Amino acid sequence: MEIPEMFRSAEHHKRGFVNGLRTVAQSDEINAAILLAASYSQSPGLFDQELRAAQGEALRRICEKYKAQLGSLVKSEREDIAVLRGIRDLARNGLPPTRTRVIDGIWVAQFNPVRGLRPSRGASRPVVSIYEHEPWETLKLHFDMDRVQSERIWEGKLGEGELGDRFTSLFLNMFPFADCHGVLVPDRGKHYRQELSKDLHAWAWSVVRLVGARIPSFGMGYNSLGAYASVDHLHWQTFIDPAGLPVTDARWLHNGGDLPYPLPCTKFVDERGSWGWIQDRHNADRPYNLIYTPAGVFCFARGFQGSYTHAGWTSGFAWYECGGGMIAFRGPDYDALTPAMILCEYANMSIA
Predict the structure, then answer these.
(1) DSSP symbol at 311
(2) Cβ(339)–Cβ(124) under 8 Å?
(3) Which of 8, 152, 180, 320 could form a disulfide with 325 if both were Cys (CB 3.0 to 4.6 A apart)?
(4) Is residue 166 part of a domain?
């Protein structure tokens, strides 16, 4: 099977994201203004002068369309109106770009105020089981909804060998915190819940192997329910990270180094071993996070969201934070973040 153009190289991949953003800029819906603003704040390098102008015009146009709702302060208002209001306010002095710095020579911190406007959905409530699914009909968001199809930038068959026959959709991430940050959904019309099966885990790893052979910095993150998954419709978050997340650094024991990682982490380079680890978590009904890379799958055992109190500078640790990337939504929190604060958070969530 020939690999789709979208995944043939990093340049092809970035071009697909830019084309998707250009299409979104033609929409008059609130999600378009949010997605364009968040994408520009995270990855301004994707925006040429024309796309930057289209982003600004879309925000102006959509704010005008919803002027009455933006001027109202009703507690029961729609989530997207509240987010749009926040973006409008941030944009008055120019949308702030995401700032990043390295802490203690290893941890990556970012100040991402636009992502701080994101509705928390399922990531905010305490969870006591990875099988705690609410009825499909009551989900506020899933990837088969008509209103999110404008955010879909590619669809087709993707995978390696016999696993390459699975129909797959790639969406723009509404609140990105990584370059080329997408949402990959297999068989979106079948409405799989956020609960891994052996076949779908094998498929995910086949995608990373296939794409990683052409884009070595490509990866995919996965959150189980109870590990800060915000949408209960099976998906992985895709990203490109040329520098590599801190968890991939050679200093750690799981990579052959001398230092133990501060969060329980097991790395697998074979599908059977990683599935055995996942199956053990399923059998014990315990949450987990995964990061798939061409070099292997990093598996993180952790406590349930809500079983511990996370620090005020974070909205909770999901796959990205498990991998060593920290996100702060307020400038003072970003400036004050220290290695001790990060290690303390890892210790709190390590009750696996």
Answers:
(1) -
(2) no
(3) 320
(4) yes
* Cβ-defined contacts of 134-143 (< 8 Å, 24+): 134/232, 136/191, 139/231, 139/232, 139/233, 140/79, 141/231, 141/233, 142/191, 142/231, 142/232, 142/233, 143/169, 143/171, 143/183, 143/185, 143/188, 143/231, 143/233, 143/235
pLDDT > 70 fraction of the chain, expressed in percent and rounded: 97
Residue 84 lies in a domain: no
Name the token pair of 170.
């790639």
64 occurs within a structural domain:
no
- The CATH number that applies at residue 297 is 3.30.428.70
Domain that includes residue 205, residue range? 97-349
Looking at every residue in the chain, the average pLDDT score rounds to 94
User: Is the Cβ–Cβ distance between 235 and 169 less than 8 Å?
Assistant: no
Partners of 291 in beta bridges: 221, 298
Q: Report the number of distinct structural domains present in the chain.
A: 1
Largest CA distance in the chain: 59
How many C-beta neighbours within 10 Å does residue 327 have? Answer: 23
Q: What is the pLDDT of residue 73?
A: 67
Task: Report the alpha-carbon distance of residue 320 to residue 326 in Å, rounded.
Answer: 7
Structural domain contains residue 104: yes
Strand pairing class (107-111; 325-328):
parallel
| Residues written for the chain | 352
Q: Measured between alpha carbons, how far is 209 from 215 in angstroms, rounded to an integer?
A: 10
pTM for the predicted model, two decimal places: 0.96
pLDDT at 79 over 90: no
**Could you read off the pLDDT of 145-178 as tens digits, one per residue?**
999 999 999 999 998 887 888 999 999 999 999 9
Task: Examine the pLDDT at 91 and tell me if it is beyond 90.
Answer: yes
